[in-house]
Amino acid sequence: MSNRSSDRPAGDLRKTGMALKHDREWDYELDRIVAAVDERDAKTVGLQLPEGLKRRGPGVADDLRELLPDDVSVMISGQPCYGACDLDTYLMKRTDVFVHFGHSPMKESEKIIYVPLFSNVEVRPIVERALEEELAPPEEEADLGLVTTAQHMNRFEEMREHLEARGYTVQTRRGDERLTHEGQVLGCNYASADVDAEQVLYVGGGKFHPLGLAMEHPEKRVVIADPVNNTVTVADTERFMKQRYGAVHRAMDADSWGVIFCTKIGQGRWERAQEIVERNDDAYLITMDEVTPDRLRNFGLDAYVNTGCPRITTDDGPQFHAPMLTPGEYEIAIGEKPLDSLEFDTFHGTW
Amino acid sequence: MSNRSSDRPAGDLRKTGMALKHDREWDYELDRIVAAVDERDAKTVGLQLPEGLKRRGPGVADDLRELLPDDVSVMISGQPCYGACDLDTYLMKRTDVFVHFGHSPMKESEKIIYVPLFSNVEVRPIVERALEEELAPPEEEADLGLVTTAQHMNRFEEMREHLEARGYTVQTRRGDERLTHEGQVLGCNYASADVDAEQVLYVGGGKFHPLGLAMEHPEKRVVIADPVNNTVTVADTERFMKQRYGAVHRAMDADSWGVIFCTKIGQGRWERAQEIVERNDDAYLITMDEVTPDRLRNFGLDAYVNTGCPRITTDDGPQFHAPMLTPGEYEIAIGEKPLDSLEFDTFHGTW
Q1: Alpha carbons A100 and A122: distance in angstroms, whole number
Q2: What is the pTM of this model?
């Protein structure tokens, strides 16, 4: 079987966390899946993988089919998937065993097997470099926040130990119930960085998460240690803040608003959306799962408020033909809040 | 409220049927909707419009809100919608009254109010032109098939009468249960043209339907009378057949196949999809609602079989990075059927 490599669109921040420069082995936990099939006497297995790993889907299906009875069929979700907020509920309901790869659980369920696919890349070297190159030394700043993403959670204690051995007092917490682990961040939730420290070390790949972290905590210095691409940087949110201010200003002229309610299981903010349409006669509630430029263009409204995934709004915002704001930014645009109240949009809790 | 006009992407055949050069009045049947709300003591109304009419959604919502009690909320589906095979089941389940505009019912339900939005454009002039310019006269060919799309069904008898007055024996039928009306065609179903006549008059806008009709009935001469754009043409399927042969040939080298099962309510061909994966070890079943190039590119497989909407395969085929075939074309590509068996892919029945 030949799997031709796919081209990733340039500039897609959301995929850079998973874009690896070299092949690596993940643990697909096939035995666990096979055991569940056996236990439930299952006839159908559904697999859902995040975008950057969909190309592994056929291979995983092949490996499973070798281990499973002949009458068990394996099917793969083709729906876009960017997090555990984004379960393919259609496939989940129609398969006896449903496996969600690449994210830690947002909400546990007997029905779902979550396989984290830890990255397993070495973390100590890049943590050491961050220490040498960017972090204030423990003599100056002993308290250091430490966060990472689901992919590196299995090395979290290693990171902590390394920093503690160098003299830091590592501050961590579990943000809220939307997160699975202490020290974990999501694209929409950085509450684990709400610690008593002025600098925070984010260990992980890509720009997706750390920029959001820095925007959510503008008073902290965020150092980004990327063990996958082997880089150490300091988060600079200026460009993004300019982009957001620009969007807010453009939206101030809007005479009509589309208020997007996202139907993905973990991305619904129903009350927030309802509240907006109730208080604005020129606002229309639009329901959808994927929030894309084409879908919004069809409506031809002047501006949009996205009550779904905040990262679509901030990261993909420039691709949309009309300004798209977060709920907080909307309040600024219509004059209910001052411009300097602009902050990052985050999700808390589950469903 | 200002509704800025949206730009339609060039070359999108599926939208040309609804792309009108001038504003026209549709009957949104608001009274019928208001009556249903009253009857069901409804608190929520969901509106689903086809792509080309989504820009009217906010206006319809406004008009409804004026007629409805204040505590009734109106919401609009943002999901792509190309037919009555494509109901927004999420919104349908969560609203007390659900209205589907622009298509005739594929499957009736107490839950759904179908508002056809007949085009109301005059048809006699263009039928007369077709007669003068392209149709063989009744002295040569008395039998004439007559078909149209849902938008013009309210003028169907007018078309028939005009042709009969000119001396034709107009042949019509209702294709099968997937169609609502006698003489109606869908993008995936032209069974209403299975009549005893060598020429068929298709009355309607755009290339979407008549090309499919011609491809499904290569032995008939199909004259296209477009009352919206005021053109009369004869269907020429050569370019499309070349494109399909090209796709089949490119797919013959495939070592891996993605078999797409479309989860839209009226687009599922489960047994067909299952059959393919059961008989091909290099075939993987992938479930999705929207079949788009980006979604397939993620998998990196050599070729794809789309068991969902046939028009995605034939009309959008060139936009995909790997060959995508209909189920029948797949059988040719893997050597189970001869090349000259290539025919148009159609859907029959409902769900």
Answers
A1: 24
A2: 0.89
3-state secondary structure A65-81: HHHCCCCCEEEEECCCC
* pLDDT at residue A15 is higher than 70: no
DSSP codes, A179-235: -SSTTB-BTTB-GGG-SS-SEEEEE-SSSHHHHHHHHH-TTSEEEEEETTTTEEEE-
Whether B289 and A79 lie within 8 Å, measured CB to CB:
yes
- The SS3 of residue B12 is coil
What's the pLDDT tens digit per position in B115-150? 999 988 999 999 999 999 999 999 999 999 999 999
Give me the residues of B, 70-99, that contact A with CB < 8 A: 73-80, 88, 90-91
Complex confidence, ipTM = 0.88
The 10s digit of each residue's pLDDT in A235-254 is: 888 888 899 999 999 999 99
* A256/B288 touch (CB, cutoff 8 Å), yes or no: no
Count of CB atoms situated within 10 Å of the CB of B219: 5
Beta bridge partners of B56: none
C-alpha closest to that of A278 among A296, A259, A291, A263: A259
Q: Is B247 on the interface with A (CB under 8 A)?
A: no
How many angstroms separate the CA atoms of A44 and A42, rounded? 6
- C-alpha span between A99 and B277 (Å, rounded): 20
Kindly give, in sequence order, each residue whose CB lies less than 8 Å from that of residue B33, ignoring residues fewer than 6 positions away: B45, B64, B97, B99, B113, B115
**Helix, strand, or coil here: B325?**
strand
Answer yes or no: are the C-beta atoms of B348 and B191 closer than 8 Å.
Answer: yes
Q: Give the whole-angstrom CA distance, residue B186 versus residue A165.
A: 70
Q: Reading across the β-sheet that carries B221-226, which strands appear in turn? A: B169-171, B143-148, B199-203, B221-226, B231-234
Tokens at A16, concatenated: 């850079």
CB atoms within 10 A of CB A285: 24
Tell me which DSSP letter residue A153 carries: G
Helix axes A156-165, A124-133, angle to 10 degrees: 40
| Of A13 and B67, the one with more pLDDT | B67
